[in-house]
Amino acid sequence: MGRKIGEALGGFSKDNGYLRSDKYIITWAFGHLVGLANPETYDPRYKTWNLTDLPIVPHSFKLIASASSKKQLGLIKELAKECTSIVNCTDAAREGEAIFRYIYEYLNLRQPFKRLWISSLTKEAIREGFSKLKDGKDYDDLYKAARCRGEADWLIGMNGTRAFSTKFGGHNNVISIGRVQTPVLAMIYDRHQQIVNFRSETYFTVKATLQQESISYTGTLQTNERMIDMNVAQKISETIKGKVGRITQYDAKNNEDKPPLLYDLGLLQSDANKKLNFPAKKTLEIAQQLYEQIEAISYPRTNSNYVAEDNLPIMHHIFDQLKNTKYAIYATGDKAYVNPTNKNICRPEKIEDHHAIFPTDKIPNDLTVDQEKIYLLIVKRFLAHFHPPAKYKTHKIFTTVDSHIFQTNIRENISPGWKTLYKDEKEHQEKDNSVEETDLRTNFAFNPKELAFCMDSEVKKNLTTPPSHYTEGTLIDGMKRAGRSILDENLKDEMSDIQLGTPATRTDIIENLKSKEYIVVDAKKLKPTAKGSSLIEAVRKMDLHVLASPEMTALWEQRLGLIAKGQASSNAFSELVVKFTQKIVQKVKEDSALDTPKDEFINTLGKCPECKEESIVADKSYYKCRNSCQIRINKIQLGKELTSKNLLDLLSVGKTAAITFKSSKGKGNYKAKLLLEGSENGRLQIEFVKTKK
Question: Do residues 25 and 19 touch, judged by C-beta distance below 8 A?
Fold first, then answer.
């Protein structure tokens, strides 16, 4: 960031840790140089975790610098002495504001400061931003929201984690609690329980093949409830064959599909997970590269899907630029569609900090394979808005045959519009998400006055299906739509837009759930582990439902948004968080009758070959049996970490499949199997695999 600002403004020379010109000195932070101090900073006794010391609620929160950041902080302080004012150039968002303000407060700086607020890192955008610097005080409310968020996470995280860990965890088994993390875990747990407890039911449908003079179509028998008796279905099917039906109801309607909204970060991550199988973290990393290093896209950590009117001329310019690149095959369409009256793209009132993601006029030509994939998603979504809506006509037909009513849904494609950009992608083919089946047609010239002959019929056996597990993509989408799942009808409409987490935090939340072993990813499906499941069950047993409530956390996130706009009190929010923190600790202390054993909070990884129980657990550097059996397996074997599949193979059949190892002498690779029999001090025996010549 500092280098790009220097290149845009010009006239800078490089020094150790900063850039200097006649007018400016540019230096930088490496992420969060300063953060909220740990509990032991307030009192040394907090170094030891004791339930009796909780809750820990500082009268005023202290800031502390990490050991690795002190050199850079010292440099910032010395350079600041040469300056009469400061420009805050951190990310134009809540967390970026916190990074600067924490440093400013920690170093006790007194210079007035301005704020650079931009959504693109092109030279033109940076120069324009510096010509329109804002007063730093204009963002005081944003900092209040950032501070409230940090302190809320500290209070709930520090106290909740210590309370649950001292009661249910222990040495090497921290039970982590988080203001947003725990409700997201609850979403994954609840969905998994729905699937586990789902009991599939068999039911039958009757399909009739109906023929007019020039049109053939299929109808589905309409019933008030699912038909579970196959004999009844068979009888109806036989009865209607060869009989004439009449059209008792026909509705036709012209419709259109507008281009999908421009990407915000969540939509981009969801699409990349669905289409490219990219984890959310990978998509964010690539998007940041495209923004910071390559300057090919606008600010990615946005939660908006719209642009403002002053963005439209820039978008027109980028459209023209793309016509002269390898993306020209997609850069068809008409600039007239991207205009201020098009509310599918231009809605300034829907923009909070940053507009939607779209390409800049710096068109890249040397992207990596994965960068190209993400960039192409963004380019095609952008260019779709230069095309008209896709037009189609729906036909709903009710045909009565021998007193039985059959329904048919036809979607007749009229013109593809923006969908021409996606003609080779299955994801954008038309589909009906309702329970009613839809037949896709072109040139469907239906005559409702004409009779229909039942040429054939068949009985189809069906099974009810459970909901799908969350993937990283659908989880992020669910976090964005948390308000829509509120059951309280009095709150549902008012809170439909509230979200869980922010674009800047959702990726980290998912990664934290993985690293803390609360969830696993199984063929893209997110599933809770035993540890994760036990935590949610314990929270609910203690009547701490709010701690696992996505709705409540989303409401808090909404309140933080109001604080950032100066429309809510930061003090009132902080008081609410303190009361909730006290409730968490009180419930853990009081609930002595809770019967969840500590073993339930340890993930077992397989069956012990000695005691035959599901008791293999992970220690720091090896796997062992928690029942004190002699088995021990080092996690690292011959320089390579065992996978979960390797471990399961060892425990079930005594050996792994062939594994490729690097030669210790640096002369290529070799293949071998690891054997449990004869292992000593955690080191497994080896069986070389002969390779075919």
Answer: yes
CA angle 423, 429, 431 (to 5 degrees): 170
Report residue 85: phi and psi, to 5°: -150, 165
Residue 306 designated active-site? no
Kindly write down the DSSP assignment for every residue of 399-437, as one continuous string. EEETTEEEEEEEEEEEE-GGGGGGTT-GGGS----SSS-
DSSP 211-253: E-SS-EEEEEE--SS-B--HHHHHHHHHHHTT-EEEEEEEEEE
Determine the pLDDT at residue 487.
Answer: 56
Look at residue 300 and give its three-state secondary structure: coil
Q: How does strand 18-20 pair with strand 390-401?
A: unpaired
DSSP state of 26: E
For tokens 């996690």, what's the residue?
A: 635
Q: Which helix (H) or strand (E) holds 454?
A: strand 452-463
Residues 7, 307, 480: CA angle, nearest 5 degrees: 105
Question: What is the chain's Cα-based Rg?
Answer: 31
Q: Tokens standing for 355?
A: 């507009």
Residue 37's closest CA among 131, 87, 105?
A: 105
Q: How far is residue 333's CA from residue 379's CA, in Å, rounded to a whole number?
A: 13
β-bridge partners, 125? none
Q: pLDDT tens across 60-116, in order?
A: 999 999 888 999 999 999 999 999 999 999 988 888 999 999 999 999 999 999 999
d(CA 441, CA 332) in angstroms, rounded, equals 26
Q: Which of 139, 299, 375, 518 is catalytic?
A: 299
Contacts of 469 (CB under 8 A, 6+ apart): 191, 192, 195, 525, 526, 527
Structure tokens at 44: 């040394």
CA distance 285 to 370: 11
| Rounded-to-integer distance, Cα 290 and Cα 300, Å | 9
Torsion of CA 477, 481, 484, 485, to 10 degrees: 60
Nearest to 54 by CA among 156, 179, 153: 156
How far is residue 515's CA from residue 507's CA, in Å, rounded to a whole number? 12
Please give the Cα distance from 157 to 177 (Å, whole number): 5
User: How many residues can be counted in the chain?
Assistant: 693
- Which of 487, 504, 505 shows the shortest CA–CA distance to 496? 487
pLDDT per position as a tens digit, 328-337: 999 999 999 9
Distance CA 191, CA 198 (A): 11
How far apart are alpha carbons 64 and 106 in whole angstroms?
A: 8
Output the DSSP codes for 470-520.
P-HHHHHHHHHTGGGG---HHHHTTTTT--SS-TTTHHHHHHHHHHTTSEE
| Phi, psi torsion values for 117, nearest 5 degrees | -130, 100
CA distance 352 to 349: 8
DSSP conformation letters of 660-692: EEE-TTSS-EEEEEEEEEEEETTEEEEEE-PPP
| CA dist., res. 528 & res. 558, Å (int) | 27
User: What is the number of helices (H) and of strands (E) in the chain?
Assistant: 18, 25
Stretch 371-382: mean pLDDT = 98
User: Cβ contacts of residue 636 below 8 Å, gap of 6+?
Assistant: 621, 642
pLDDT digits (tens, 9 = 90+) for 646-668: 888 888 888 999 998 888 776 78
Residue 107 and residue 100 in contact, taking contact as beta carbons nearer than 8 Å: no
The pairing of strands 244-257 and 622-625 is unpaired
